[in-house]
Amino acid sequence: MPGTELFGSEERKEINDVLETGILFRYNHDQQRNGIWKAREFEAEVRKITGAKYAHAVSNGSAAIAIAMAASGIGAGDEVIVPPFTFIASIEAVLFIGAIPVFAEIDETLCLSAEGIRKAVTPKTKGICLVHMCGTMADMDGIMAVAEEHNLILVEDAGQAFGASYKGTSVGLFGKAGSFSFDFFKIATAGEGGIFITNDEDIYKLADAYSDHGHNHVGNNRGMEQHPVLGFNYRISELHAAVGLAQTRKVPHIREVNRKYKKMLTDILSKTEGISFSHLTDPAGDSATFLNILMPDQETAQRTVDEFNKAGVAGFNYWYTNMYHFINQWDHLKKMSTASALPAQVLGTPQDYANLHLPKSQEVVGRLISFVIRCTWTEDEVKTLANNIAACAKKAMPVHA
Ligand SMILES: *Cc1c(COP(=O)(O)O)cnc(C)c1O
Protein backbone atom coordinates (compact mmCIF):
# COMPACT_ATOMS: atom_id res chain seq x y z
CA MET A 1 0.00 0.00 0.00
CA PRO A 2 1.62 3.08 -1.21
CA GLY A 3 1.20 6.01 1.23
CA THR A 4 4.63 5.35 2.69
CA GLU A 5 6.17 5.43 -0.81
CA LEU A 6 5.41 9.13 -1.07
CA PHE A 7 6.68 10.40 2.27
CA GLY A 8 8.41 13.72 1.66
CA SER A 9 8.50 17.47 2.05
CA GLU A 10 4.69 17.82 2.31
CA GLU A 11 4.61 15.60 5.40
CA ARG A 12 7.62 17.39 6.90
CA LYS A 13 5.96 20.77 6.38
CA GLU A 14 2.80 19.73 8.23
CA ILE A 15 4.82 18.20 11.09
CA ASN A 16 6.96 21.34 11.34
CA ASP A 17 3.86 23.52 11.70
CA VAL A 18 3.08 21.55 14.86
CA LEU A 19 6.67 21.58 16.12
CA GLU A 20 6.75 25.39 15.77
CA THR A 21 3.95 25.75 18.31
CA GLY A 22 4.74 22.73 20.48
CA ILE A 23 1.01 22.06 20.90
CA LEU A 24 0.90 18.32 20.27
CA PHE A 25 -2.60 18.02 21.77
CA ARG A 26 -5.56 18.27 19.42
CA TYR A 27 -7.87 20.20 21.75
CA ASN A 28 -7.81 23.60 23.49
CA HIS A 29 -4.70 25.85 23.95
CA ASP A 30 -6.28 28.26 21.44
CA GLN A 31 -3.81 31.11 22.01
CA GLN A 32 -0.55 29.14 21.92
CA ARG A 33 -1.44 27.05 18.87
CA ASN A 34 -1.42 29.95 16.47
CA GLY A 35 -4.27 28.65 14.34
CA ILE A 36 -2.67 25.21 13.85
CA TRP A 37 -5.32 22.46 14.10
CA LYS A 38 -3.99 19.42 12.24
CA ALA A 39 -6.53 16.84 13.49
CA ARG A 40 -9.36 19.14 12.36
CA GLU A 41 -7.74 19.64 8.95
CA PHE A 42 -7.12 15.89 8.60
CA GLU A 43 -10.82 15.28 9.31
CA ALA A 44 -11.85 17.95 6.79
CA GLU A 45 -9.68 16.32 4.11
CA VAL A 46 -11.27 12.92 4.82
CA ARG A 47 -14.75 14.48 4.63
CA LYS A 48 -13.80 15.92 1.25
CA ILE A 49 -12.70 12.57 -0.17
CA THR A 50 -15.53 10.48 1.31
CA GLY A 51 -18.37 12.99 1.25
CA ALA A 52 -19.12 12.10 4.89
CA LYS A 53 -20.93 14.73 6.97
CA TYR A 54 -18.77 13.88 10.00
CA ALA A 55 -15.26 12.50 10.38
CA HIS A 56 -13.38 12.03 13.63
CA ALA A 57 -9.69 11.18 13.78
CA VAL A 58 -8.54 8.74 16.46
CA SER A 59 -5.42 6.85 17.53
CA ASN A 60 -5.72 3.95 15.06
CA GLY A 61 -8.07 1.98 12.81
CA SER A 62 -8.70 -0.71 15.43
CA ALA A 63 -10.02 1.95 17.80
CA ALA A 64 -12.03 3.54 14.97
CA ILE A 65 -13.97 0.33 14.22
CA ALA A 66 -14.57 -0.33 17.94
CA ILE A 67 -15.84 3.24 18.34
CA ALA A 68 -18.04 2.88 15.24
CA MET A 69 -19.72 -0.18 16.72
CA ALA A 70 -20.06 1.23 20.24
CA ALA A 71 -21.45 4.56 19.04
CA SER A 72 -23.93 2.68 16.82
CA GLY A 73 -25.31 0.89 19.86
CA ILE A 74 -23.53 -2.48 19.75
CA GLY A 75 -22.36 -3.64 23.17
CA ALA A 76 -22.11 -6.42 25.75
CA GLY A 77 -23.63 -9.72 24.68
CA ASP A 78 -24.74 -8.56 21.25
CA GLU A 79 -24.08 -10.98 18.42
CA VAL A 80 -22.24 -9.38 15.50
CA ILE A 81 -21.77 -11.10 12.14
CA VAL A 82 -18.12 -10.98 11.04
CA PRO A 83 -16.01 -12.42 8.20
CA PRO A 84 -13.31 -15.08 8.73
CA PHE A 85 -11.09 -13.18 6.27
CA THR A 86 -10.09 -9.77 7.63
CA PHE A 87 -7.27 -8.21 9.57
CA ILE A 88 -7.94 -9.63 13.03
CA ALA A 89 -8.54 -6.13 14.44
CA SER A 90 -12.18 -6.35 13.27
CA ILE A 91 -12.77 -9.45 15.43
CA GLU A 92 -10.80 -8.02 18.37
CA ALA A 93 -12.91 -4.86 18.20
CA VAL A 94 -16.13 -6.89 18.47
CA LEU A 95 -14.74 -8.84 21.43
CA PHE A 96 -13.29 -5.84 23.26
CA ILE A 97 -16.51 -3.80 23.15
CA GLY A 98 -18.07 -6.81 24.88
CA ALA A 99 -19.92 -8.22 21.89
CA ILE A 100 -19.82 -11.73 20.41
CA PRO A 101 -18.49 -12.47 16.91
CA VAL A 102 -20.51 -14.82 14.71
CA PHE A 103 -18.63 -15.91 11.61
CA ALA A 104 -20.34 -15.99 8.22
CA GLU A 105 -19.21 -16.81 4.68
CA ILE A 106 -17.40 -14.49 2.30
CA ASP A 107 -17.44 -14.96 -1.48
CA GLU A 108 -15.39 -13.91 -4.53
CA THR A 109 -15.90 -10.24 -3.55
CA LEU A 110 -13.49 -11.16 -0.66
CA CYS A 111 -16.13 -9.69 1.68
CA LEU A 112 -19.13 -11.09 3.57
CA SER A 113 -21.82 -12.06 1.05
CA ALA A 114 -25.50 -11.22 1.46
CA GLU A 115 -26.24 -14.95 1.35
CA GLY A 116 -23.57 -15.68 3.97
CA ILE A 117 -25.01 -13.05 6.30
CA ARG A 118 -28.58 -14.28 5.81
CA LYS A 119 -27.60 -17.84 6.80
CA ALA A 120 -25.84 -16.62 9.97
CA VAL A 121 -28.67 -14.44 11.31
CA THR A 122 -30.27 -15.62 14.59
CA PRO A 123 -32.85 -13.87 16.81
CA LYS A 124 -29.87 -12.57 18.84
CA THR A 125 -28.04 -10.94 15.94
CA LYS A 126 -27.65 -7.23 16.59
CA GLY A 127 -25.32 -6.10 13.85
CA ILE A 128 -22.89 -6.74 11.04
CA CYS A 129 -19.22 -5.75 11.03
CA LEU A 130 -18.74 -5.64 7.27
CA VAL A 131 -15.11 -5.49 6.14
CA HIS A 132 -14.22 -4.12 2.71
CA MET A 133 -11.16 -6.24 2.03
CA CYS A 134 -8.07 -5.69 -0.08
CA GLY A 135 -8.94 -2.22 -1.32
CA THR A 136 -12.29 -3.23 -2.85
CA MET A 137 -15.94 -3.03 -1.84
CA ALA A 138 -18.64 -5.49 -0.79
CA ASP A 139 -21.94 -6.15 -2.61
CA MET A 140 -23.75 -3.25 -0.95
CA ASP A 141 -27.14 -3.65 -2.66
CA GLY A 142 -27.42 -7.24 -1.47
CA ILE A 143 -26.05 -6.54 2.01
CA MET A 144 -28.23 -3.46 2.62
CA ALA A 145 -31.25 -5.59 1.74
CA VAL A 146 -30.39 -8.27 4.36
CA ALA A 147 -29.59 -5.64 6.97
CA GLU A 148 -32.97 -3.99 6.44
CA GLU A 149 -34.84 -7.29 6.26
CA HIS A 150 -33.51 -8.34 9.69
CA ASN A 151 -33.23 -4.85 11.20
CA LEU A 152 -29.47 -5.19 11.79
CA ILE A 153 -27.04 -2.40 12.64
CA LEU A 154 -24.54 -2.25 9.79
CA VAL A 155 -21.05 -0.96 10.60
CA GLU A 156 -18.28 -0.95 8.00
CA ASP A 157 -14.63 -1.63 8.69
CA ALA A 158 -13.10 0.01 5.63
CA GLY A 159 -9.63 -0.15 7.18
CA GLN A 160 -8.14 -1.24 3.86
CA ALA A 161 -10.46 0.61 1.52
CA PHE A 162 -10.01 4.35 1.99
CA GLY A 163 -10.73 5.93 -1.40
CA ALA A 164 -13.02 3.10 -2.53
CA SER A 165 -16.70 3.62 -3.34
CA TYR A 166 -19.77 1.69 -4.49
CA LYS A 167 -22.06 3.30 -7.09
CA GLY A 168 -20.73 6.72 -6.19
CA THR A 169 -20.94 6.45 -2.38
CA SER A 170 -17.78 6.08 -0.31
CA VAL A 171 -17.40 2.85 1.62
CA GLY A 172 -18.08 3.53 5.29
CA LEU A 173 -21.26 5.51 4.58
CA PHE A 174 -23.72 2.68 3.92
CA GLY A 175 -24.22 1.65 7.52
CA LYS A 176 -24.58 3.70 10.69
CA ALA A 177 -20.84 4.36 10.88
CA GLY A 178 -17.58 3.33 9.25
CA SER A 179 -13.87 3.37 9.90
CA PHE A 180 -10.55 3.69 8.08
CA SER A 181 -7.02 2.88 9.16
CA PHE A 182 -4.03 5.12 8.55
CA ASP A 183 -1.44 2.71 9.90
CA PHE A 184 1.90 2.25 8.16
CA PHE A 185 0.58 -0.18 5.53
CA LYS A 186 -2.44 1.61 4.15
CA ILE A 187 -3.07 3.82 1.08
CA ALA A 188 -2.35 6.83 3.31
CA THR A 189 -0.55 6.66 6.63
CA ALA A 190 -0.44 8.85 9.72
CA GLY A 191 2.22 6.60 11.24
CA GLU A 192 -0.60 5.44 13.47
CA GLY A 193 -4.10 6.75 13.03
CA GLY A 194 -7.72 5.97 12.26
CA ILE A 195 -10.80 7.82 11.08
CA PHE A 196 -14.40 7.29 12.09
CA ILE A 197 -17.07 8.55 9.65
CA THR A 198 -20.85 8.86 9.76
CA ASN A 199 -23.68 10.99 8.41
CA ASP A 200 -25.52 10.81 11.74
CA GLU A 201 -24.90 13.75 14.09
CA ASP A 202 -25.91 11.91 17.28
CA ILE A 203 -23.60 8.99 16.50
CA TYR A 204 -20.79 11.42 15.71
CA LYS A 205 -21.22 13.23 19.04
CA LEU A 206 -21.25 9.96 20.92
CA ALA A 207 -18.09 8.78 19.10
CA ASP A 208 -16.39 12.11 19.77
CA ALA A 209 -17.05 11.85 23.52
CA TYR A 210 -16.38 8.09 23.71
CA SER A 211 -12.92 8.52 22.20
CA ASP A 212 -11.87 11.16 24.77
CA HIS A 213 -13.05 10.11 28.27
CA GLY A 214 -16.56 11.37 27.61
CA HIS A 215 -15.59 15.01 26.95
CA ASN A 216 -18.27 16.88 25.03
CA HIS A 217 -15.65 19.34 23.72
CA VAL A 218 -17.79 22.40 24.38
CA GLY A 219 -16.15 25.53 25.78
CA ASN A 220 -12.51 26.35 26.42
CA ASN A 221 -11.97 24.93 29.88
CA ARG A 222 -11.23 21.25 29.42
CA GLY A 223 -11.47 20.42 33.12
CA MET A 224 -14.98 21.84 33.31
CA GLU A 225 -16.43 20.21 30.17
CA GLN A 226 -19.55 18.07 30.48
CA HIS A 227 -19.17 14.28 30.13
CA PRO A 228 -22.39 12.80 28.70
CA VAL A 229 -20.98 9.23 28.61
CA LEU A 230 -18.08 7.25 30.01
CA GLY A 231 -15.33 6.95 27.45
CA PHE A 232 -11.71 6.05 27.04
CA ASN A 233 -8.61 7.55 25.43
CA TYR A 234 -8.45 6.94 21.69
CA ARG A 235 -7.16 10.42 20.82
CA ILE A 236 -4.83 11.10 17.92
CA SER A 237 -1.88 13.45 18.45
CA GLU A 238 -1.34 16.53 16.32
CA LEU A 239 1.92 15.06 15.00
CA HIS A 240 0.18 11.97 13.67
CA ALA A 241 -2.70 14.03 12.33
CA ALA A 242 -0.20 16.27 10.51
CA VAL A 243 1.22 13.26 8.65
CA GLY A 244 -2.28 11.89 7.98
CA LEU A 245 -3.33 15.24 6.52
CA ALA A 246 -0.41 15.45 4.06
CA GLN A 247 -0.91 11.82 3.06
CA THR A 248 -4.68 12.11 2.59
CA ARG A 249 -4.15 14.94 0.13
CA LYS A 250 -2.13 12.48 -1.99
CA VAL A 251 -4.82 9.79 -2.12
CA PRO A 252 -6.55 10.98 -5.33
CA HIS A 253 -3.18 10.83 -7.10
CA ILE A 254 -2.20 7.47 -5.61
CA ARG A 255 -5.60 6.01 -6.53
CA GLU A 256 -5.32 7.19 -10.13
CA VAL A 257 -1.86 5.64 -10.57
CA ASN A 258 -2.94 2.46 -8.77
CA ARG A 259 -5.89 2.08 -11.14
CA LYS A 260 -3.72 2.54 -14.21
CA TYR A 261 -1.21 -0.08 -13.05
CA LYS A 262 -3.89 -2.48 -11.90
CA LYS A 263 -5.51 -2.26 -15.34
CA MET A 264 -2.16 -2.97 -17.04
CA LEU A 265 -1.60 -6.01 -14.84
CA THR A 266 -5.17 -7.23 -15.34
CA ASP A 267 -5.01 -6.83 -19.13
CA ILE A 268 -1.82 -8.88 -19.37
CA LEU A 269 -2.84 -11.54 -16.85
CA SER A 270 -6.34 -12.10 -18.20
CA LYS A 271 -4.61 -13.74 -21.17
CA THR A 272 -3.12 -16.40 -18.88
CA GLU A 273 -5.27 -19.49 -18.74
CA GLY A 274 -6.40 -20.37 -15.22
CA ILE A 275 -5.95 -16.90 -13.71
CA SER A 276 -9.10 -15.05 -12.73
CA PHE A 277 -9.72 -12.10 -10.45
CA SER A 278 -11.72 -11.29 -7.34
CA HIS A 279 -15.19 -9.93 -8.10
CA LEU A 280 -15.33 -6.12 -8.11
CA THR A 281 -18.91 -5.08 -7.37
CA ASP A 282 -18.16 -1.60 -8.76
CA PRO A 283 -14.96 -1.53 -10.85
CA ALA A 284 -15.15 2.28 -11.10
CA GLY A 285 -14.94 2.56 -7.30
CA ASP A 286 -11.88 0.38 -6.74
CA SER A 287 -9.12 1.99 -4.62
CA ALA A 288 -6.86 -0.44 -6.50
CA THR A 289 -4.37 -0.93 -3.68
CA PHE A 290 -4.27 -4.67 -4.47
CA LEU A 291 -4.42 -6.88 -7.54
CA ASN A 292 -6.37 -9.88 -6.27
CA ILE A 293 -5.89 -12.99 -8.40
CA LEU A 294 -7.79 -16.25 -7.98
CA MET A 295 -6.18 -19.52 -9.00
CA PRO A 296 -8.30 -22.57 -9.97
CA ASP A 297 -7.85 -24.26 -6.57
CA GLN A 298 -5.89 -24.07 -3.31
CA GLU A 299 -3.21 -26.56 -4.41
CA THR A 300 -2.47 -24.59 -7.57
CA ALA A 301 -2.35 -21.36 -5.58
CA GLN A 302 0.19 -22.90 -3.19
CA ARG A 303 2.28 -24.17 -6.12
CA THR A 304 2.12 -20.69 -7.68
CA VAL A 305 3.37 -19.17 -4.42
CA ASP A 306 6.22 -21.70 -4.41
CA GLU A 307 7.09 -20.69 -8.00
CA PHE A 308 7.05 -16.99 -7.01
CA ASN A 309 9.47 -17.72 -4.18
CA LYS A 310 11.76 -19.76 -6.46
CA ALA A 311 11.76 -17.00 -9.09
CA GLY A 312 12.19 -14.18 -6.57
CA VAL A 313 8.82 -12.59 -7.37
CA ALA A 314 7.97 -10.40 -4.36
CA GLY A 315 5.23 -8.09 -3.14
CA PHE A 316 2.39 -10.59 -2.78
CA ASN A 317 0.32 -11.92 0.12
CA TYR A 318 -0.98 -15.47 0.34
CA TRP A 319 -3.59 -14.78 3.01
CA TYR A 320 -4.57 -18.46 3.42
CA THR A 321 -1.43 -19.06 5.49
CA ASN A 322 -1.16 -15.53 6.98
CA MET A 323 -1.23 -15.43 10.80
CA TYR A 324 -3.32 -12.25 11.11
CA HIS A 325 -5.76 -12.22 8.18
CA PHE A 326 -7.37 -15.65 8.03
CA ILE A 327 -9.14 -17.69 10.65
CA ASN A 328 -7.16 -20.90 10.01
CA GLN A 329 -4.22 -19.47 11.92
CA TRP A 330 -6.22 -17.79 14.73
CA ASP A 331 -5.43 -20.41 17.38
CA HIS A 332 -5.66 -17.80 20.16
CA LEU A 333 -9.25 -17.08 19.14
CA LYS A 334 -10.13 -20.75 18.79
CA LYS A 335 -8.84 -21.40 22.32
CA MET A 336 -10.02 -17.99 23.55
CA SER A 337 -6.58 -17.31 25.02
CA THR A 338 -7.02 -13.89 26.60
CA ALA A 339 -5.10 -11.74 29.06
CA SER A 340 -8.21 -11.42 31.21
CA ALA A 341 -11.78 -12.63 30.75
CA LEU A 342 -13.87 -11.00 28.03
CA PRO A 343 -17.70 -10.80 28.11
CA ALA A 344 -17.83 -13.38 25.27
CA GLN A 345 -16.09 -15.89 27.55
CA VAL A 346 -18.38 -15.18 30.48
CA LEU A 347 -21.59 -15.19 28.40
CA GLY A 348 -20.60 -18.04 26.08
CA THR A 349 -20.46 -18.00 22.30
CA PRO A 350 -23.04 -19.51 19.94
CA GLN A 351 -20.32 -20.91 17.67
CA ASP A 352 -17.37 -23.13 18.54
CA TYR A 353 -14.62 -21.07 16.89
CA ALA A 354 -12.37 -24.13 16.67
CA ASN A 355 -14.94 -26.03 14.59
CA LEU A 356 -16.48 -23.60 12.14
CA HIS A 357 -17.88 -24.82 8.84
CA LEU A 358 -17.05 -22.15 6.26
CA PRO A 359 -16.28 -24.07 3.05
CA LYS A 360 -16.85 -21.15 0.68
CA SER A 361 -14.45 -18.88 2.60
CA GLN A 362 -11.88 -21.68 2.73
CA GLU A 363 -12.17 -22.17 -1.01
CA VAL A 364 -11.94 -18.48 -1.92
CA VAL A 365 -9.07 -17.55 0.41
CA GLY A 366 -7.24 -20.76 -0.54
CA ARG A 367 -7.26 -19.63 -4.18
CA LEU A 368 -6.45 -15.96 -3.52
CA ILE A 369 -3.07 -14.28 -4.05
CA SER A 370 -2.92 -10.48 -3.63
CA PHE A 371 -0.23 -8.23 -5.04
CA VAL A 372 0.32 -4.80 -3.50
CA ILE A 373 0.14 -2.15 -6.25
CA ARG A 374 2.90 0.42 -5.90
CA CYS A 375 2.34 3.95 -7.23
CA THR A 376 6.11 4.44 -7.66
CA TRP A 377 6.51 1.61 -10.18
CA THR A 378 7.56 2.40 -13.75
CA GLU A 379 5.46 0.97 -16.59
CA ASP A 380 8.35 -1.38 -17.42
CA GLU A 381 8.33 -2.70 -13.88
CA VAL A 382 4.59 -3.32 -14.13
CA LYS A 383 4.99 -5.28 -17.38
CA THR A 384 7.89 -7.31 -16.00
CA LEU A 385 5.87 -8.18 -12.92
CA ALA A 386 2.85 -9.24 -15.00
CA ASN A 387 5.03 -11.46 -17.18
CA ASN A 388 6.70 -13.00 -14.13
CA ILE A 389 3.34 -13.72 -12.52
CA ALA A 390 2.06 -15.30 -15.73
CA ALA A 391 5.19 -17.46 -16.14
CA CYS A 392 5.03 -18.75 -12.56
CA ALA A 393 1.28 -19.40 -12.78
CA LYS A 394 1.74 -21.39 -16.00
CA LYS A 395 4.33 -23.63 -14.35
CA ALA A 396 2.02 -24.19 -11.40
CA MET A 397 -1.13 -25.04 -13.38
CA PRO A 398 -2.35 -28.62 -13.18
CA VAL A 399 -1.31 -30.64 -16.23
CA HIS A 400 -4.29 -32.08 -18.09
CA ALA A 401 -3.63 -35.45 -19.68
C1 LIG B 1 -5.41 -2.16 9.14
C2 LIG B 1 -6.76 -2.63 9.48
C3 LIG B 1 -7.35 -2.38 10.73
C4 LIG B 1 -6.61 -1.84 11.90
O1 LIG B 1 -6.04 -0.64 11.73
P1 LIG B 1 -4.86 -0.13 12.70
O2 LIG B 1 -4.76 1.30 12.32
O3 LIG B 1 -3.63 -0.91 12.36
O4 LIG B 1 -5.30 -0.33 14.10
C5 LIG B 1 -8.67 -2.76 10.93
N1 LIG B 1 -9.35 -3.40 9.98
C6 LIG B 1 -8.82 -3.68 8.78
C7 LIG B 1 -9.66 -4.37 7.77
C8 LIG B 1 -7.50 -3.33 8.51
O5 LIG B 1 -6.95 -3.68 7.34
CATH topology of the largest domain: Aspartate Aminotransferase, domain 2
What is the name of the CATH architecture of the largest domain? 3-Layer(aba) Sandwich
How many domains would you count in the coordinates?
A: 2
Number of strands: 13
Mean pLDDT: 97
Radius of gyration: 21 Å
Give the CATH level 1 class of the largest domain: Alpha Beta
User: What's the arrangement of strands in the largest beta sheet?
Assistant: 1-9-8-5-4-2-3
Order of helices and strands: HHEHEHEHEHEEEEEHHHEEHEHHHEH
Unique ligands? pyridoxal-5'-phosphate
Helix content: 25-40%
Strand content: 5-15%
Number of helices: 14
Span of the ends, CA to CA: 41 Å
Features:
alpha/beta, 14 helices, 13 strands, 401 residues, 4-stranded antiparallel β-sheet, Aspartate Aminotransferase, domain 1, binds pyridoxal-5'-phosphate, 7-stranded mixed β-sheet, globular
